[in-house]
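User: Predict the structure for this protein chain, please.
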Amino acid sequence: MTPKAAIRAEAERLHAVFVAAGAVPVEADILLPAETLLDLYGEDIRARAYVTQDPARGEMMLRPDFTVPVVQAHMAHGAEPARYCYLGEVFRKQDRVSERASEYLQVGFEVFDRTAPEAADAEVFALFQSMLADLGLRPATGDIGILMAAVRGLETTPRRRAALLRHIWRPKRFRGLLDRFAGRAPVPAARAALLERLAKGSPEALIVEAGTFVGLRSAEEITARAEALLEDAEAKPIAAPEAAMLYDLLTLEAPAAAALTHLRGMMPMLPAIGPAVDRFALRLEALAARGADVTTLPFEASHGRTSLEYYDGFVFSFHAADPSLPPVASGGRYDALTAVLGAGASIPAVGGVIRPGLVARLRGAA
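Assistant: Here is the predicted structure, written as structure tokens:
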């Protein structure tokens, strides 16, 4: 086990590099209001957050990451453009006894700059890559924004588009929905049985037949859900060529430059991805200008779909050779999060975090 003093020393060294890169050091409370934050994190962190009840402040949580509180502080008081860095503990429950810590140090860097978002993406990635260059890590990149644009452009009902967008971060659930909406999978037996019953009588009649209410949904909510199920049953399947392009996108893995060529070839069938692909092209130019070899840089269109749900564009991570270890560093773009926390204001933003404990461990093993 790496001594805490070595981890703290590594964290301070990494933090100093961020300061030298122009970031302003910031602090965030360890105990945070839970209500807003739990809605912004993915299922993984929500399930692993330490939540407690304060008699005066209500439901509170131990800080699971820094990005959300940093965004909150910037949107309330920050100037533009801005670069921040931070160092401190984060807390995440583990579902079983393992070597993974429930409390560990995190060092991070965030950029708020609306002038050239793709250049900011390249700045953050290149900075992290240079800081970790001696560890021989494997980089991975992706772009959640391309997949989201493809879903928003589908010729299907608004409800189906919304369902797919809601489950982008749950790959298995997303694939199941896409299979059903594209007519490649049958309607689940329980849903088929319910639809058959609804076809024979009104939702209101079925509610009366069911007897005493159990749960929190009102009769109106149950009726609205039943009507939505009936509407969905009447919807036409997603057209086969359009669905085929989306399946292709989900499995796209290639060097970044080759991925761009592939994506441009998909645009005639999925024109909605055009603006996102153009941003991808600009990002590759910015990465190349900072010394990245985009002809070998790995790109996966589905990368980042099991991480934080506030990412909505470029995503990246750096991995050690040991597959049992979590990413040594990770990050991405979260423009929409600034709008959610900005009370009507928003600004393009990108950032990332490094686990100094893993860096110290890998450097000690070298």
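The chain has two domains: 4-150+245-362, 184-236.
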